[in-house]
Design brief:
The protein is built from 14 helices and twelve strands. By secondary structure, it is an alpha/beta fold. Strand 7, helix 9 and strand 8 form a beta-alpha-beta unit.
């Protein structure tokens, strides 16, 4: 899938700008410091990517640095979605970045000017990867100490950390903080929804799903099709029907990137299965928080479910689960090299639902023929057309 022209042009401009800057600047000398002995009053955290999941995965950095520096000013650089999601989290100021052309061509110069006027003591790229934009913002922030991973984009940093031994995104941030010699512990992504937001999310879901005492299962039918992460639409339809047959109440969610599927799912599903398109990340999070279980392809919504305390069942079409998947304490991963079947996902869902007190469901044996044959084998190519 080809990226839009303005997006490709903006990436080329960014690469050119980075190349020019590398020619006219010198490599910063390494700083040998003990952060426990340094006067740290102003901290800048940077996560310069634009995906929902990336922003959610950055939230542990806020709690870890706040614990180490309880009285410091802690600011964050990230996309607009992070500013929305990070409400009620302990940060003092959010600087918003953009990739919209032509704003992105000049906005970063204004951002750097703002950052340098603050006089940060410490700036950290919390992506735990070697991103050019993160290194640029941290490097030119004017901070006395500038932290990121060692690599070809580290010339503007003065604290260069070696590659972290564990690349799983749920474990890298605690490891990065520990590598700085600071106190660290296992901490997972979290969002701070208000009681009013949770109540509104509960009302929205319960008013739309069919009446009954069965568990509510949220099903997100999206995923980045360009990266091969989206499970076929027909598979989701079969899964919804099978879960309903077991007494579950279903709420289907469609995201911005698959909004064109809204009509398809509303036509194909039973009338008592609501299909939601909710563009507000916080309202979406509040609705997910009411679900007893959340089924999704790999992507941002799986991290969002973990962050609001709802166990996701995550369908990984690609072999990225070791890098992006949550630990077993937070969710269940379903992955098969030959393709994930509806039967495999259904089995995991029923195992998860069996642990919910009062779940109203009938037993199912996957060998008794009650599940259609198509649900017990990878979907053939002709069934993938609605995606």
């Amino acid at each position: 899938m080809k990226l839009p022209f303005h997006y490709r042009l903006n990436k080329k401009i960014n690469r050119l700008a980075m190349w020019v800057l590398s020619l006219v600047t010198v490599r910063s000398a390494d700083a040998q410091v003990d952060l426990h002995q340094e006067p740290i009053g102003k901290i800048l955290l940077v996560r310069a990517t634009f995906r929902l999941g990336d922003s959610i995965l950055a939230t542990p950095a806020i709690s870890l640095f706040r614990r180490n520096f309880p009285h410091a000013r802690i600011d964050f650089v990230g996309p607009s979605v992070a500013k929305i999601l990070f409400q009620n989290l302990p940060i003092d100021h959010h600087y918003q970045i953009t990739r919209r052309f032509p704003d992105a061509s000049w906005a970063y110069l204004c951002l750097i000017k703002q950052l340098r006027s603050v006089g940060y003591d410490l700036a950290v790229d919390v992506s735990c990867s070697k991103t050019a934009m993160g290194s640029f913002i941290v490097g030119f922030s004017g901070a006395r100490l500038r932290v990121g991973l060692r690599g070809r984009r580290d010339r503007w940093l003065n604290i260069r950390l070696p590659r972290l031994p564990d690349r799983n995104k749920y474990r890298t941030l605690p490891a990065l903080v520990a590598a700085l010699g600071l106190q660290s512990h296992e901490v997972f992504p979290s969002l701070a929804l208000s009681p009013e937001e949770k109540s509104e999310g509960r009302r929205s879901i319960e008013a739309a799903v069919r009446q009954g005492d069965g568990p509510i299962v949220g099903v997100f039918v999206g995923g980045r099709i360009r990266l091969g992460r989206r499970w076929p639409a027909q598979c989701f339809l079969q899964l919804v029907a099978a879960l309903q047959a077991q007494g579950a109440r279903i709420a289907v969610f469609v995201g911005p990137e698959e909004k064109n599927l809204l009509g398809f799912f509303r036509r194909s599903l039973e009338r008592d299965v609501p299909v939601f398109y909710e563009p507000s990340p916080r309202i979406f999070a509040a609705m997910v928080s009411r679900c007893d279980l959340f089924v999704t392809s790999a992507g941002g919504p799986m991290h969002l479910a973990c962050a609001v305390g709802v166990r996701p069942v995550i369908i990984f079409q690609m072999g990225e689960y070791r890098h992006w998947g949550p630990p077993p304490s937070l969710g269940r991963i379903v992955h098969q090299a030959g393709g994930v079947t509806v039967g495999e996902v259904l089995k995991v869902c029923l195992e998860e639902l069996s642990d919910i007190p009062g779940a109203s469901r009938r037993g199912l044996s996957l060998e008794d023929g009650s599940l259609p044959l198509a649900a017990r084998q990878p979907l053939q190519e002709d069934a993938k057309k609605p995606t």
